[in-house]
Amino acid sequence: MDPIVSHAWTGTRIVTVANQKGGVGKTTTAVNMAAAMAMAGLRVLVIDMDPQGNASTALSIPHLSGALGIYDVLIDGLTMAEVVQECPHVPGLLCVPATIDLAGAEIELVPLVARESRLSRALQSYLSGLRPGEHVDLVLIDCPPSLGLLTVNSFVAAREVLIPIQCEYYALEGLSQLLANVSLIQQHLNADLEVSTILLTMFDARTKLASDVAGQVREYFGDRVLRAAIPRSVRVSEAPSHGETVITYDPGSSGALSYIEAAAQMRLQEVSP
Questions:
Q1: Is 0.90 surpassed by the pTM of this model?
Q2: Mean pLDDT calculated for residue range 5-15
């Protein structure tokens, strides 16, 4: 294993959005939090580490096979500056897209030198090479719903983990394994990593189940749980099919307003230096 990473940059929050359980609103959270932060005036970079490329789709970033993306950075050694693109709908929102080629990266990374920290090194190089006017305030890394090398790279590159948890039965299933893996990353690869933020998603205030799950999560994670919860919303689900986040697709919808509120709360969080 690589030695524990020491992050050289200090002015940029780097957050991995992770949950090994699928269907919890992980990618939806990554792109909508990113859009809300950018609309509030921050420069935000989304790194799409999921071979499905759903985050790239939601941000209208071309990512068909053959397009340059994070695969070329991890495997072929391209710089991040060569593949980053700007979201056409939101000024100040940048994206490093994922192409289908990324599906083979789990295997291709195995024999490579420093395989666990290739994303971290590329991101560090990109951030340290930016001119003052090109600074990035926040990086959000969208993980695949697994615990392979792509997710390990995402954890090693980040300082924080944001975990979306859906307010449904089995919400906490698998969460202990995710937290155990974060602990392993802390011990062996990235001592700076911390689970800083929990966001409740798919919340239906009409059901007792949703309230019970929310109560359990808040009791376990305390202040790390954002006060805002994301409701079930058709508009949130529709937005990616139009190549947009719900923040631009229907800014007055309950889903958009909830993500804007959650982003504002996340900006105010006190994070360990």
A1: yes
A2: 67
